[in-house]
Amino acid sequence: MLKVTILGCGGSAGVPMLGGTDGAGEWGHCDPAESRNRRTRSSIIIEGEDGRRLLVDAGPDLRSQLLANQIGRIDALLVTHGHADHIMGLDEIRPLNRAIGAAIPVYATAETLAALQVRFDYVFRTPTPPVFFRPALTPITVAPGQAIEAAGQPVLLFRQDHKVMETLGLRIGRFAYSTDVVAMPEASLDGLLDLDTWIVGCFQRHPHSVHAHVDLVLQWVERLRPRRTILTHMGHDMDWAWMRAHLPQGVEAAHDGMSLHID
């Protein structure tokens, strides 16, 4: 049994975006009165039966996300790619180091780790327990097609096309997570058959240059036929009520703090 917590399900700017005529935010098509339209940057926690937790991505909202979901410890981190909305919370890792008394393993491709070492060189220096006056990560290089063990979970990594770079998708048993993808290689699609639950990025209603949109995701769903599909990485075009009215059975929108239990 896996427990998956959706820490955030918004796009790179979140919902609402900064701005708006009154400075209170730009909501686009999203109704501000619907709390599930308020989205922080996309990230999840995967917790196994033994209680160990894998954090997938660490965006700029990480601190508030972990506090909101009462998560004070993680055992490993997987970074899907090096875009800012998926890595800019790495400095928040320091209290989590203190919680486990050790550096936290971070799994990422060689390209992503190189980007992290440029932006956050200090997190890869020699750890300083027990105080940890700087965050501490242990880099572990991985690649698409590789099967790894992270936080006690058997994780299969697969390739995704984000147009401007490749991203990592992951599968654990009959659960899979795909964020920041606009095209899926055939081999990756074949590896997504027989899913119970698929969380997949869907930025807006109409086609986008680097993100999947509603019709594209529904094409994938028609081919893969997971029991349940949950949309994430959504922009301010994706209103909660609109999605409830227009998405087919078995396809639904995520919301921040959503909790899933998957056999």
Automatic annotation (TrEMBL):
InterPro entries: Metallo-B-lactamas (IPR001279), RibonucZ/Hydroxyglut_hydro (IPR036866). Residues 40-213 form the Metallo-beta-lactamase domain. PANTHER family: HYDROLASE C777.06C-RELATED, HYDROLASE C777.06C-RELATED-RELATED. This is MBL fold metallo-hydrolase. It holds the Pfam family Lactamase_B_2.
